[in-house]
Amino acid sequence: MLKARYLCCGTAAAVLATGVALAAPPKERQDELIYQLRQDCGSCHGMTLKGGLGPPLVPAAVAGKSDETLVEVILHGLPGTPMGPWAFEISREEAAWLVRRMKEGL
Ligand code: HEC
């Protein structure tokens, strides 16, 4: 019976099933992450995330991509491209939270 919840479809269930917690980080950490998104990520993706060396990370640009794919890209980067891995300082939960911010717009 316990297994039943993993059989359910839909994004939220899929994200939960792959272990990404949906809880938001504490407020101070949220501020740090948004700062990092604008500064570090912004150095390639643009300060307003509209794109630069890296593609735009605004809602219209990431809407069609799955949360899980975007989280994986943030954590592990895209080998062979300038997009590096961030898992050394951004946790999976934090990356999932950032993806939601990107999808909703900063
Ligand atoms: C050194 C430049 C650079 C930095 C810094 C950087 N990125 Fe990227 N990022 C890229 C490039 C280039 C790509 C596209 C790679 C490709 O597909 O060719 C990319 C791709 C991505 C994608 C996939 C976008 C899509 O539409 O599929 C996400 C999500 C992303 N980056 C998030 C981040 C986040 C979050 C940070 C900061 C923690 C960050 N990036 C920092 C260069 C960068």
Q: In CATH, what is the class?
A: Mainly Alpha
Q: Give the number of DSSP strands.
A: 0
**Residues in helix, %:** 40-55%
Structural class: mainly alpha
**Distinct ligands, ions and cofactors found in the model:** heme C
Q: What percentage of amino acids are in beta strands?
A: under 5%
Give me the CATH superfamily.
Cytochrome c-like domain
The CATH architecture is: Orthogonal Bundle
Number of separate structural domains: 1
Order of secondary-structure elements: HHHHHH
Low-confidence stretches: 1-14
| CATH level 3 topology | Cytochrome Bc1 Complex, Chain D, domain 2
Give a short account of the largest sheet: none
Number of helices: 6
Query: Cα-atom Rg, whole angstroms?
Result: 14 Å
Judging from the principal axes of the Cα atoms, what is the shape? globular
Output mean pLDDT: 86
For the terminal residues, how far apart are their CA atoms? 40 Å
Account of the protein in words:
The protein is an all-alpha fold and 106 residues long. It is built from six helices and no strands. It has a single domain (21-104), classed as Orthogonal Bundle (Cytochrome Bc1 Complex, Chain D, domain 2), CATH 1.10.760.10. The model is unreliable at 1-14 (pLDDT under 50). The structure holds heme C. Heme C is lined by residues 36-37, 40-41, 43-45, 53-55, 57, 61-62, 65, 70, 73-74, 78, 81-83, 86, 98.
Question: What are the salient characteristics of this protein?
Answer:
106 residues; Cytochrome Bc1 Complex, Chain D, domain 2; binds heme C; mainly alpha; disordered N terminus
